Amino acid sequence: MPDVFRVRVGVRTYELDAQGHVNGAVYLQYGEHARWECLQAAGITQAKLHARGVAPVRIEETVRYHHELRAGDEVDVSCTFVWGEGKAFRVQQDVRRADGTLVAEVANVGGVLDLATRRLVQDPAEHFRSLASAPHLLGL
Fold first, then answer.
1. Confidence bin at 2 (pLDDT 50/70/90)
2. CATH number of 5-134
């Protein structure tokens, strides 16, 4: 099995809710941060995408919580792209403490938007593959 891309994120105090743990919406931000870091590690920048007239978009996203996070915690957020046929792809992500404890799972369905037509492109994997210098990080 190939290595899974991971990025470390530190929990900041302003990300906490009234109970003192990470606000649920922040997990979505952690997931998006990890996806962009993975794309950049693969050689795909926002500038390259815009030069081609495309941009990645979220279609659906869910979080499944397992444990609380509090200020000062550090977590590793994974990023595993799952390709199929059609206009959408999936990104499976987990949020784990350094000791491996699963804190949350983020499930993302995304696509690549043609910025001129405002429609999803037919083969998002090919768009990413053609721009990537390290496509293996994207499962390509």
1. low
2. 3.10.129.10
